[in-house]
Write a structure and sequence with these properties.
The structure is a single chain. It is built from six helices and no strands. It is mainly α. It starts with a helix and ends in a 20-residue tail after the last helix.
Length: 155
Amino acid sequence: GAGYLSSNPISGVGYRNFALAETTISPQARKFGSARAKVTHNSLVEIFVETGLVGGLLYLAMIGSVFRRLLKSRGRMKKQRRMETRVTRLCTDFVVVSVVAFLIGGFFLALGYTPVLFVLLTIGVLIELGDTASSQRNPLLGHRRQGARSLRTAP
């Protein structure tokens, strides 16, 4: 993996081309004319080798950005005492733990392009956007502004 990255540092060997690189440009393939296709067994190696340093760093930045925003959002939610904030904080915890579990599993499996990570990151972004809107007391989300009267009548 590191040899392919050093020979193609910017663009990598191409999306989903690790197995092709193993059968054509690996040292065994050069020596014997062909080699058995292998997988990386590591998501980060897979991403960096196939997309190069640019793609690998963008991949890490995407995950890190969502992760950082979720933790920051969770800190804001901790200060609030509303029930919906507690539920949202619990969902945030689930997404954070799921992303961490995915990354740990990614050290042993080639899961770099699976939709599960992208779904989790999307849920994380939506939670953060909802928390940001909620903390700004957005009336479109059902929160009343200070001094606004409710449309409900008292029983």
